[in-house]
Every structure is written in C-alpha cells, then in structure tokens.
Amino acid sequence: MSAPAAGRAAVVLDDGQLGVLARMLGDALERRTPPGDCADCELAREISRIGGADGVFPAEPCEACADDLAMSDEYVALAAVFGIETES
Prior knowledge:
The chain is mostly helical. The protein is built from three helices and no strands. It is elongated, with a radius of gyration of 18 Å.
C-alpha cells in the first residue's frame, strides 16, 4: 500500500470493515459496469454493421458507458489497494 498523502493518516481496517468495503465496492462495480447493450451502444453497433465493420462492439462505447467504465476501473484500483479481489 502506498504512503498516505501529506496531512492524512494511514487507515487500518479490521476484518469486518474490510468486508463492508468489499461489499460496497462489489455493489458499485455491479452498478457501474455497463451491460454493453444500452441504446446508444446498440446504435453504434448497428452503424458498424452497416459500415461493414464486425459489429461486435463499437470502437468506442457511448459517453455514459465510457464514464461508467472509467469509474469501475477506479473502483477496481481502490479494491486492489486494500487487497480485495474483484471479478472485473
């Protein structure tokens, strides 16, 4: 674990607190991991199919899904700091 930022104390969590944090991050990841089938992403896939691309997933997710993916990456990074394994 990295050193705390200047002016901040290191935090030590007991097993119960760590369990709560793990569940909280799991819930957040479930909420923030986009399904890949929102209407905007589906439109992008359809445009890809019409354009001759493979149509599996748009080159870029829609803005909302991209924001959710970025946030879920931050949750995974935070979980790693505390040694919490995630499914993502």
